[in-house]
Amino acid sequence: MSSDEAPNSIIQLSLRALPLTTISIIPSPASLAKTVRRQCPMPCSTSTSQLRGIFRKTDRGEDFVLYEDNQMIIFATTINLSLLRQCKHWFVDGVFKACSEDFYQLFTVHALLKSVVIPLIYGLLIGKSADDY
User: C-alpha angle 100/102/104, rounded to 5°?
Assistant: First the structure.
């Protein structure tokens, strides 16, 4: 959401509609103004040329970048995809504080292989909406 109104105007307008009991427990106007001014970071436009060659291949020389655009980068090898197809149990996880500031989350797909859960696909995503997944 965006607005051309000043943060203090937005806060004052919102506070008028609240009961006094609620106003007494919300953060200070200065804190609310800071929250109103805060903007979400713009997505990084990571392009194919910006991803260094060292990250494009595994130590064995296999291609590691499965898919890449301005919204995400997906890392997996053909061997990992083959292993994933063979496994009956898959697990996914999204970690938000473990990725670079250019991305919003690290999304991983793991599989149960011979009683061991191993990560097989890694994705760097700029968001967490249904469209991102």
Answer: 80
Q: State if pTM tops 0.85.
A: no
- Residue 20 parent element (H or E): helix 20-23
Are 61 and 86 a contacting pair, CB within 8 Å?
no
pLDDT in tens, the chain (133 residues): 556 777 777 777 777 777 777 777 777 777 777 766 665 454 444 444 456 677 788 888 899 999 988 888 899 999 999 999 999 999 998 887 776 777 888 899 999 988 889 999 999 888 877 777 6
Spatial distance between the Cα atoms of 17 and 39, rounded to a whole number of angstroms? 24
Residue where the block lists tokens 């967490």? 128
Structure tokens at 54: 């060292």
Give me the amino acid identity at 118: I
